[in-house]
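User: What would this chain look like folded?
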Amino acid sequence: MNQTIDRNQIEQLVRNALRGGGPSATPATGKSASAGGISPPGWIDGQPNLRVSISARHVHLTDEHVETLFGAGSVLEPDKDLYQDGFYAAKQTVMVVGPRRRMLPNVRVLGPTRNFSQVELALTDSISLGIDAPIRHSGKIEGTPGCVLVGPAGTVQLDQGVIRAARHVHMNFSDADHFGVKNGDMMQLKIKSHDCSVVFEDVLVRADEAAKLEVHIDTDEGNACNLDAACEVELRKDDCNCKH
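Assistant: Here's the prediction, encoded as structure tokens.
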């Protein structure tokens, strides 16, 4: 199934919306600055700076699949840096094909490459493709459905790897101290918008040394709360003692 992608129809993959403008509304629960007076990544004026971003449909590829789809010797070409350092939207896009030849053209590839290929969709995307994509955290692809990826130089059949990405928050260890959470904990995200305010539960903490404080929700979730017009956002620790 060789088919050239129409580059004129490239749709934007990642829409980042800076929310809060300054320090997080959540009260500090730990240290407010790192040792030595050096601000942690993303902090402003000694406090975390919360960003909420819509992560639209996108694809992660292995080096092998990059060459299959775009030609021998091809590598991902960065087009736009993402908020998290070292990650980018590539110039390359692919067509995602589901059952009965339903397809989504021009789905952006994100870099750098990974050890496995993965397709991340919103619910409406998966319905459009005719794929029953489960909600999973990134990398948890065992038992998930597959699809066909079409590039200008070839095709790739994925036997698994199509997911609806579960909402999550990237943060560094100073952010985690501030909120009183640790890697793997769950948080709540409150978004206040006119007539459609929402509280998102089950926001997974993904903490590492270099991350900046950023919540990722998908396109459907962003539309549900009218994120672009939100007047207030708040990230808070989930104290319900629920088991996840």
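Residues 51 and 214 are 5 Å apart (CA to CA). If you want, I can go into more detail on any region.
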